[in-house]
Amino acid sequence: MTRIHDSNFFVKLVAAFAVMTAAWLLRDWRAGSALAIVVVGLLAVLRVPHLGTYLRGAALLVLLVVASWILNLMLQGERLDVALPVAFAMAARLVTTTAVFFFVMETSTPGSILAACSAARLPPIVTLVLSLTFGIIPMLREDFERIGDAQRARGMEIDDVSLPMRLRFALARGVPLLVQAIRMAHAISLSLSIYGFDLGRKRTTWREVGLLVEPRLQKGLSR
């Protein structure tokens, strides 16, 4: 199992896209649901970290998707027996899609992503986008959990409450999470500026900086 977790980032990414494509090509809701169950079962067998958190989110996703699609289709004049298979098929596709990419994110460290991109000799902007996309999402999830712990520490009961109340509390976490995401983006951009990140150069370094810092930097930027 450890070897699967340590597989090349791009191997896991291609496999995730293949499974996602298969899920969206399946038309029958029974086949899609079976694929979703198999994928989630594999996550449990492989002991992917934070699986419990994902399962709670997936259960809420299924509930919201099924309810919204049934309501939407019935408002368009469809019968319930026609709306149900469509809603379950869509929920199954989304569960499969989120599950495979959850595996990629939870088993790929920023270092492993950077190493894979470097070995593939990808352009700097592609490396940056991939490392930030798959590295920041787990960090934001941890921030989301810390916000929930802070709410509990202040006496807010967010566990043993009704589903509508849980949704309200989850939305209440969205504001501080958005603020934290903006602060994180600012910190990352500041760090890139400090380390002289330059898209016009294959590798950014401070080694060429001597006594004449500004002229050297401007010369490098003009290339």
Automatic annotation (TrEMBL):
It is found in: Membrane. It is a multi-pass membrane protein. Keywords: Cell membrane, Membrane, Transmembrane, Transmembrane helix. Coiled coil: none annotated. Belongs to the CbiQ family. The lineage of its organism: Bacteria, Pseudomonadati, Pseudomonadota, Alphaproteobacteria, Hyphomicrobiales. This is Energy-coupling factor transporter transmembrane protein EcfT. The chain crosses the membrane at residues 9-26, 32-50, 57-76, 82-105, 112-137, 177-197.
